[in-house]
Amino acid sequence: MTNRELLEDADSLRYGFEEAFQLMASAVEKHLSSAPPVIRTYTAHLAKSTGKFIRAYGLMACSMDEEDKVPADAVTLASAVELLHLATLVHDDVIDDADTRRGIDTLQKRFGKKAAVICGDYLLSLALKLAVSIPKRKEYEALDMSNYLCRICMGELRQEINNGNLDLSVYRYLSIIKGKTAALFEASFHGGAMLSTTDERKLRMYRKVGNDVGMIFQLMDDCIDYEMDESDAKKNVRSDYEEGVVTLPLIHAMKQDENFLMQVKNGLVSAKELYDRVLEAGGTAYTKAMAGRYYTKAVSTIGALNLSEAKMARIMTVVDKSYYGIKK
């Protein structure tokens, strides 16, 4: 069989969802555990504790065809998305000087910041290499992954610029997380949908759902920092304020009480007291309500897509996991 025939044969492959998900997870593990020897120590460490692959799950759910099958290209793209996401986490941990991620030492804590940055760069390069390896990649140029990458980077930079900005508005904060977190969810839903439809109206709807899910995910993650302990969250918690990261629960609490805002600005509030007062002021309740609005919008858009029962259930799994988190 020629190389062209092999590519065409691979392009025609379709999998049941569970099989596709396992293939994707195995591919990510293989890329991490069998990296070039010079970097394998670092990537193998990351392979010890991978995430729940929620973005990959969303991509493959959106790619399901009329027979509820997942195309082989979706498995490859989903693997690329997860490696890209892992790269952003490695870099985030360096910026935040985080000690734990997913229940294990972060790469920067175990091996140092320089090694972590280089490993993150490698994962980004590997993700892009995978993304352009699909047989009909020219048909998916409209996905414009480079634009999504720019949005993610700009979101991270805007967060850094606003580090310690206690006058950050709700609108400004939402615009930051729209890039920092929601852009990759949108890219995942968009990329998967492009494998199942060419209808531009429907593609816009999938993108909208992806953005809404990303906003839900980040807003609910903001609440984790105030409401969960480290053993349950499996990452550093009660650390946003100490690192200067101003999130929606705190923004709301300070907006409700100008005296509290001035006390925080003047350094008169301890970290423990700040977290307690944010909860008392309903900061997390407000944030969850905001996430609930995005949840309602996502459910409405999904309903308008006229999907099969199986496909709708898979996509709703991502929406629910983002909203309810580890409790769901």
Q: Choose one word for the global shape.
A: globular
- Helix/strand order: HEHHHEHEEHHHHHHHHHHHH
The termini sit apart by: 47 Å
**How many beta-strand runs?**
4
Report the uncertain regions.
1-8
**Main beta sheet, described?**
2 strands, antiparallel
The helicity comes to over 70%
Mean pLDDT: 90
Rg on CA atoms, Å: 20 Å
Instruction: Write out the strand line-up for the largest beta sheet, numbering strands in chain order.
Output: 1-2
Tally of contiguous helical segments: 17
Structural class, please? mainly alpha
Descriptive notes:
By secondary structure, this protein is an all-alpha fold. Helices cover 71% and strands 2% of the residues. It is built from 17 helices and four strands. Helix 10 (182-193) packs antiparallel against helix 11. It is globular.
